[in-house]
Amino acid sequence: MNSIIDIQNIHKSFGSVKAVKGISFNVNKGEMFGLVGPDGAGKTTTIRMLCGLISPNEGMLLILDMDISKNKKTIQKNIGYLSQKFSLYGDLTVDENIEFFAEIHNIKDYERRRNELLDFTRLKEFRSRAADKLSGGMKQKLALACSLIHKPRILFLDEPTTGVDPVSRRDFWKILSGLLKEGITIFMSTPYLDEAERCNRVALMNKGEIIALDTPGKIKDMLGKKTLEIVCSPVRKAYQIIKNQTGFETQMFGDRIDIIVDDIDKDYPALEKLLKEDSIEIYDNRTVTPSLENVFIHLIREEEKSV
Predict the structure, then answer these.
(1) In whole angstroms, how large is the CA radius of gyration of the chain?
(2) CB–CB of 80/104 below 8 Å?
(3) What would the mean pLDDT of 15-44 be, rounded to a whole number?
């Protein structure tokens, strides 16, 4: 595959705060690339630099084989950007918002493209509704339609499904799958690790640095250990016991506990004995494939230990 985005040793600071600390990677044409991390990791800053909205203090950004510091306007004509905040005009209708963005991009004959996008996003029956009267999920789909009116080659999405209901979130992902089939390259940031599983490749970002970059499958293989999942009650008490009385890395997800172990046959009996001694009832246990969340938390904890 050909590289369509090339990030070379990018640094960005805001006063004394180092938001991005020398990151380097590339994105291939036609792939969905996920930038994943918690709030404050540097995801939005990175995307804003890639869109030419802010400039790095150091390093080089190549988009479509062009240096963005020298070719910003040309690059911006070929990219679409969907920011975290709803940035459309609430008093304009769906149709009028798309028309406005078409005019910004100097697209004169936009009616056919607008109808295609309204069909694509299932907003056609709401085309006369004011943007302020749309649901959160519909607003995001309208913002996406506006960012696609000029047929960009790269689409940048900054946490596009944050605050969106599960049904709209699923619809949004169907739309993104359709865009990939059209050959659009998608670069998205997300705090949701289950969403990152859908990407071709993922960069895990923490405190301005990339701590892992590969396909979701290969990143999960990095753990090199087993994940033991236990369903028990009371789960919070069990979590505290395992966390405080063993050396195992432990994560709680709802009514289950994930425990990173070296040897299931050896380690589970010891854990079972420990929990039963404290009157914890175990309903189920199984070995599961590590999730990206397991790996991400593990990498962050290992990083903290080394500081």
Answers:
(1) 23
(2) no
(3) 95
Domain(s) of CATH 3.40.50.300: residues in the chain: 3-220
- Provide the residue type at 294 as one letter: N
Concatenate the DSSP letters of all residues of 23-78 into one string: EEEEEETT-EEEEE--TTSSHHHHHHHHTTSS--SEEEEEETTEETTT-HHHHHTT
User: What are φ and ψ of residue 257, in 5° steps?
Assistant: -125, 130
Tens digit of each residue's pLDDT (9 = 90 or more) over 83-135: 877 578 889 999 999 999 898 888 888 898 999 889 888 899 999 999 999 98
Query: Which residue intervals of the chain are DSSP H helices?
Result: 43-50, 72-76, 94-104, 111-120, 136-148, 166-181, 193-196, 216-221, 235-245, 264-277, 292-306
pTM: 0.85
For CATH 3.30.70.100, list the domain ranges present in the chain.
Answer: 224-289
Q: Would you tell me which CATH number, out of the four given (3.30.70.100, 3.20.20.10, 3.40.50.1580, 3.40.50.300), belongs to the domain 224-289?
A: 3.30.70.100
Q: Are 118 and 145 in contact (CB under 8 A)?
A: yes
Quote the crossing angle between the two packed helices 94-104 and 111-120, to the nearest 10°: 130
pLDDT in tens, 33-71: 999 998 899 999 999 999 999 999 999 999 999 999 999
What are 82's strand-pairing partners?
A: 157
Please check whether the domain covering 3-220 is classified as CATH 3.30.450.20: no
Question: For residue 212, which amino acid is it?
Answer: A
